[in-house]
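User: I'm writing a tutorial on reading structure tokens. Could you give me a worked example: one chain, its sequence, then its tokens, then a sentence or two explaining what the tokens reveal?
Assistant: Sure. Here is the example chain.
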Amino acid sequence: MNQTNPGLPAGLVPDDASPEWLNKGDNGWELTAAAMVGLQSVPGLVILYGSMVKKKWAVNSAFMALYAFASVLVCWVLWAYRMSFGSDMIAILGKPSQAMTEGYLLRQYESKYIPTADYVFYQFAFAAITVILLAGSLLGRMNFYAWMLFVPLWTTLSYTVGAYTIWGSGFLKNHIIDYAGGYVIHLSSGVAGFTAAYWVGPRHSHDRQHFPPNNIINMLGGAGFLWMGWTGFNGGSPVAANGITSLAVLNTHICTATSLLVWLSLDMVFYLKSSVIGAVQGMITGLVCITPGAGIVDTWAAVLMGILSGSIPWFTMMVLHKKSSFFQKVDDTLGVFHTHAVAGLLGGLLSGLFANPKLIKMFYVKNTPHGPGLIYGMLDGKLQHGLRQMGFQFVGALFITVWNAVVTSLICILIGRVIQLRMDEDDLEIGDDAVHGEEAYALWGDGERDPPPLRFRMTPKISSFCKQFGTDH
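And here are its predicted structure tokens:
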């Protein structure tokens, strides 16, 4: 027998790295889920953004995503994680503090069977993708140095508040149904992106009128990372490898496939063509819509959510956007407001409508104040409870919308006082080479590039000289 621990065979000692509370299955799954969410951003959105924009903006768009991923992680472990999930400071925000010590990261996370380090990294991947999704509204004209300031400021002042308010210990925690981030991630990124796009200003006029993707095949590759990575996005939220996890994963993919097919069908009916870009947009709206209710709605509800997520955002993007002077004033490059704000709001409200009280108790706790969904409230004779839940869903949406619109505006105004938000017109004409000194594709020679175009500013003397010879060039 082992004298140190009589329960172990001779020669073996307890594994200090695997304490009694640790469940290796849950731990392994949560690490996998966190990695899958990270892959949605790097390389997923890096590839998607770099391919979905005009060729001259491929490097800049991809690099905005890569920079944000790195920047958010540093902010997250230094102060932002504890502001989102730490001890209470005010009703909407936790106390800023680091999350890097061994004693903190290796202890049990709440009542779950994983180390806190798992959850820190998993939630970092959520925070990072939120900022990167926001960037989709700003591609093709934002000053990269302004973006470098915007990312840590927005993560600190905006994202942490939404996360703490709904998922942490904030005043909406025990009221809002937001399974994996329909409000915290998608509604906030859509509203903030649209708001920031207003302050940054539009793309170059020619880019706004003609902005074809430079590589549709690579765009589909990035979209594939996004779709498959969503398995970890919604599957990791229970922080365990259990039945809710399995249901959430199945619901996620069913809703997404349905949404894609509905969007594609609408494109074919009204535009007589099966748009690949449209199919990707329908895929994204399906993923976003199911997120706030993935593990707490039945599969039939996931199908209905897919039908609505493939049609309502399609209408707002393809019809309402083109007819509304309000939407036309703001240059939202990739339509993030429609694919994330509209779809996220839709998913949050539908979760309040379809949430199954049995699943809610399995995901939260048996005596949870959440739910039931309005439909189940009507069927179970608890209409008042269902109406109350729908009321909270509206309140949560209103809070996230107002907070992100106001704080994002203040951040843009502050940065604008320090550095120009939008690139110079000369740089906007050239793109990547002017901003980074690099281009996405070498299409001739042995990786050689054409010499940079000659650029100079028209001074009064040069202008006078040109006029003498009858030219302005």
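What the tokens reveal: Strands lie at 88-90, 93-94. The longest strand covers residues 88-90.
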